[in-house]
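INPUT
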Amino acid sequence: MEVNLEVPSCNPYQQALQNFTAAADVLGLEEDVRAQIREPERVLIVSLPIRMDNGHVRCFTGYRVQHNTSRGPAKGGIRFHPQVTLDEVKALSTWMTWKCAVVNIPYGGGKGGVTCNPKDMSMGEIERMTRRYTHAILPIIGPGQDIPAPDVYTNSQIMAWIMDTYSMTRGYLVTGVVTGKPIGLGGSLGRNEATGRGVFNTIECAATHLRMSLKEAKVVVQGFGNAGSVTAHLLDGAQSDVVAVSDSRGAIYNADGLHIPKLMLHKERTGSVVGFPGSETITQDEMLALPCDILVPAALENMVHAGNAASIKARIVAEAANGPLTPDADAILEEKGVFVIPDILCNAGGVTVSYFEWVQNEQHLMWELQEVNSRLEKVMCKAFAEVLEIKLDRRVSMRTAANILAIRRVVEATRLRGIYP
Ligand code: NAD
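OUTPUT
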């Protein structure tokens, strides 16, 4: 397949290529090696005719991209969203390669998506689309080939349908074909909280490095979904003061700290953090400019940009979201001396516990929650220490250091394997 290298500016794939080039330059990587690992190994585009509830047929477009499988099967989520494009899926699959390599789990990077709006679809339509999509990508997925997981607007129920569709074609139950499954179908304890817990682990490591106490540290969390709310809850438990949080409907603030368990209940009841008793409503940009020690962007891509980065006062920015800083914002924060924990390290807890889920499935084991969490902490802290060592040694940002560590591991595997035929 002809791969289009021309990408419009400000698209995530261009960002992924820029990050790669920055790290490859520091490593002095030769062009022939760069060429082998820069582009996705495999891109599958599928057309999905679905019978809608009104009797008409709609054709959706789906993608599965395997960026690199030199270190193991491709691993990465499936996104159902109206803005899914091939470039977005390629970028996300590239980040997955580096993410798995940073935490040193034996996976490559993959990602999938269907351009659709599940909010406008019935459960039946989503199930039929999921099963047809699974069938269409079936030749390239499997426990040893490519293992999908949930991403934006996909969940454990959708993983159960993928697993069932795959298993029906094999004639027996294959739990290891996806992760993020319901606990009753081979899911792992701790998977749901894993991303936020991993974010918290890396914040603890950063605070120790900066000789900063988490006790009474002021925290701001942008995005109070899965990753953001778990991170806020764990920081609250470490006696930090979470003074402001936001979601898509707005931001709230209390200088003395928000009561996080009550806020989680409020969000569950009302669907938003806005209107939480005892809080003041502020704008998203006012929230980013608040005096604080730790900022956790846990919403979407490019939320921190040239227009608001200069106002940030935090000492630590922990990227729970994928790509929350534009390259401009990244440069502004670097200049200000802010300690940025990059996404491929910071939010790797999710894929790490996905790996634990797959290991349990493949060995027919069921680990206790405490075992999952302590293994996760070990993986996150080791990766943090390795990235920090490269940062200090090479005098580069944590982002470039994380990319260097990841690229080095992928290059080593690529060289050892050689070129077939
Ligand atoms: P989620 O849907 O549970 O939460 C997203 C939150 O962001 C919601 O509270 C939403 O209201 C909020 N939000 C959306 N638009 C916003 C805006 N304009 N301003 C402020 N808040 C806004 O999703 P999640 O799983 O928590 O994922 C969040 C980020 O973390 C994404 O970038 C995702 O790729 C990344 N991530 C998640 C996982 C995981 O396992 N959940 C793993 C790795 C990375």
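end of record. Confidence is low (pLDDT under 50) at residues 1-9.
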